[in-house]
Amino acid sequence: MNQAGDIVRLDIRNAGDLLESKKIADLAELFYLPMAAHNTESAINAMATVLAQGHITVPQKPSLVIELNQDVVRANLAEGERCWD
């Protein structure tokens, strides 16, 4: 198999999700390719990128290590959207 690149540059948002990103990272590791996460989106995506790269302590429960202010979320809903509780 020919190696077409030297670094895997992954965008979690475009890859699908954290699990798909993990699969890509695992495949890169098989070929001894370094991986660099790329972030083109929001703070939520940034935290997902950080979690996938292992540069912060991973929480003990499912989380993106952020907490949304419910009042702000409710105040900024698009017409017809509902807030979760």
Describe the fold and architecture:
The chain is mainly alpha-helical and 85 residues long. The chain is built from four helices and two strands, in the order βααβαα. A two-stranded parallel ribbon has the order 1-2. It is elongated.
Can you tag this structure with a few keywords?
single chain; 85 residues; mainly alpha
Q: What amount of the residues lies in strands?
A: 5-15%
Structural class: mainly alpha
SSE succession: EHHEHH
* Domains, number: 1
How far from one another are the termini?
A: 50 Å
* Major beta sheet summary: 2 strands, parallel
**Number of discrete helical segments:** 4
The radius of gyration is 16 Å
Strand order of the largest sheet: 1-2
Number of DSSP E strands: 2
Which regions are unreliable across 5 or more consecutive residues at pLDDT < 50?
none
The helicity comes to 40-55%
Give the oligomeric state.
single chain
Question: How confident overall, as mean pLDDT?
Answer: 79
Shape: elongated
